[in-house]
Amino acid sequence: MTSARKRAQRRTAYLFLFLPAALLGAFAFYPMVGVFILSLRHYNPLTGGDFVGAANYARLFADPNFWWSLLNSVIYLAVTPILIILSLGVAMILRERLKGRDFFRTLYFVPVVTPIVIIGITWRWIFHEDLGLLNYILVESGIVTHKVHWLTSYPLNLLSTMVVTIWRGIGYYMIIFLAGLTMIPTELEEAAILDGASWLKRTIHVTVPLLKPTIITVFILSSIAAVKVFTEIYVILPGAPSSNKTLVAYMYQTAFEQFDMGYASAIGVLLFLFTLVFSYFNMRLLERGGASWSY
Amino acid sequence: MELLRKMLLYSVLSLVAVIMAGPFLWLLSTSLKSTGEIFAWPPSLFPAELKLANYPAAWNAVPFGTYFINSIIVTLTTVLLTVGFAALAAFPLARLNFPGRSIAVGMVLATLIIPQEVIVIPLYTTVLHLGLADTLAGVILPFSVSAFGVFLLRQAYLAIPRELEEAAAIDGASTIRIWWSILLPLVKPAAAALAILSFIGTWGDFLWPLIVLRSQEHYTLQVGLSTMIQSFAANYRLVAAGAVIATVPVIIVFLAMQKTFVRGILMGSGK
User: Fold this and answer.
1) Does the CB of B105 have a partner CB in chain A at under 8 Å?
2) Contact A259/A44 with Cβ under 8 angstroms?
3) Which of A19, A118, A219, A232 to mutate to test the interface with B (most CBs of B within 10 A)?
4) A16 CB near a chain B CB, below 8 Å?
5) Quick count: other Cβ atoms within 10 Å of Cβ A148?
6) With b meaning 16 or more CB within 10 Å and e meaning fewer, what string describes B230-246?
7) What b/e sequence results for A207-224 when a residue is b if at least 16 CB atoms lie within 10 Å of its CB, and e otherwise?
8) What is the fold, at CATH topology level, of the domain defined by A63-287?
9) pLDDT digit string (tens) for B126-151?
10) Superfamily of domain B63-268
11) What chain B residue is nearest to A123 in terms of C-alpha separation?
12) Is A8 in Cβ contact with B243 (below 8 Å)?
């Protein structure tokens, strides 16, 4: 390459990168550093605030609501194994040459593209204690004798929102599993069929081990999504006490309802450390052509 | 045996279909009921008479038209900027030699591991200081460059064989010209997938618009709907009607562009 051409390339590179880099700098890198700095201050956007060192972190350790929200976020991670089993199960059926499988695939995917606020509105009404469809079905069929407090008693209210997250996620991970299933070699499964292995045995001993990379991808994506959960909690459990909420919901409440932004930033830093474990593996996968988009 | 197996599979598929579609049908049914019927016990599966009037009522109970227009502005602008910036920034990161390239790629990857939720507080103070709080620009600008989008488009540029641009370079075409007339058309499928992902993601976005927008006339649909739950709690048929209206655009876009959308998700997950 001639040096004139090299110079031209360099000029073009900086020209193309200038604006995107400036925006990423202002709205991604600066806030990344900012959350650590803010966590060391007592900060209210209206009145400002002072540097308080590690005081916010000391407060965190003594705040039962923080520990509750951390516990709730850990509990929320239980959606991951359930999502893996359900979406893999659905994908195993829909990989077969069945009539109408495109219809089922599309239908199962509709919750994925529907905004979470709308899904929250839908499920809140189904979980409604006095008028909800769920209590009606359960009472009528004799499964329960009294109406269940789906949204007002802890930990049931948290489990109810987890059900919604699972319901919405199945179609998304199903798509990833379907793609993973098309990439595994068919010879081994065919050999297992010839050996007379049952569908269940074949699935557990042949298909699932071959799918391990896809299962890891889904595990990481759904764990990160579970740790970040906010909208479901905000829409379905608006009146719930802080101790019933997840980390992001508690952070939002502290920052944007109580305007205690320094303290909320300390929660944000803890949230970051929590997600870092999963994100690290996500990035390693990404470098090898792996995973990263989550809704 | 084969027949029995098929019947079993279809039973499972149908059960899952009922679980997936049921909540939406229940929402639709609720949106068409009268007030009396909402409070009826046992609840009726189908409305006794179709109260289509709930839809105009919901539309007029809150500034729904304004919410709708705001959502359209935010979504279309974000899609345009996201795709445009990604197509721009990813090109030098994939194809050009310049000092600092590997650092720049590393930084794009680094922003991917920080969840939006972690940085929203300092992001809000930044937007506040820029005078963009409670504006649509404040909702749009911070997420107009998507690290994920840059990453996706970079993969697409990297997949193009080098020979194509080398031939053009020998013919004396400038770098920008090569980008515009040779490379850009080849990354169109990736750009289309990014556009759909960005459309559906932005339309449903909630946390950030909720934080930035304070006055009702700036609300997006999702923020407006979330406040409707509180103020119309006793009138759920209107909330349901509003929710149905707000769902229609994404469902249309999804059904029309389903293949592209699914391809985008799979590109993002490395498949």
Assistant:
1) no
2) yes
3) A118
4) yes
5) 17
6) eebeebbbbbbbbbbbb
7) beeebebbbebbbbbbbb
8) MetI-like fold (1.10.3720)
9) 999 999 999 999 999 999 999 999 99
10) MetI-like (1.10.3720.10)
11) B23
12) no
Closest CA to A166 of A107, A225, A113: A225
Question: Which residues does chain A have within 8 Å of residue B129's beta carbon, measured at their own beta carbons?
Answer: none
Domain boundaries, chain B: 2-54, 63-268
- C-alpha dihedral sign at A289, A284, A78, B261: negative
User: Which of B39, B148, B230 is opposite residue A293, by nearest beta carbon?
Assistant: B148
Tokens of A194: 């010839």
Nearest one of A211, A110, A208, A224 to A167, comparing CA atoms: A110
CB-CB neighbors (< 8 A) of B261 in chain A: 113
Provide the residue ranges of all domains of chain A, joining segments of one domain with +.
63-287
A244: pLDDT strictly greater than 80: yes
User: What's the pLDDT at B135?
Assistant: 96
Out of A4-8, B40-44, B198-202, pick the least confident.
Answer: B40-44
Q: Contact, B83 vs B198, CB < 8 A?
A: yes
In chain B, positions 151-170, which contact chain A (CB-CB < 8 Å)? Answer: 151, 155, 169
User: From residue A36, how far is each of B108, B118, B242 by CA, in Å?
Assistant: 20, 10, 40
Q: Fill in the DSSP letter of residue A51.
A: B
Which residues 102-141 on chain A approach chain B with CB closer than 8 angstroms?
104, 106-111, 113-119, 121-126, 130-133, 136, 140
User: ipTM of this predicted complex?
Assistant: 0.92
Q: What is the pLDDT of residue A293?
A: 44
Distances (CA, A) of A182 to A83, A175, A192, A290: 20, 11, 17, 16
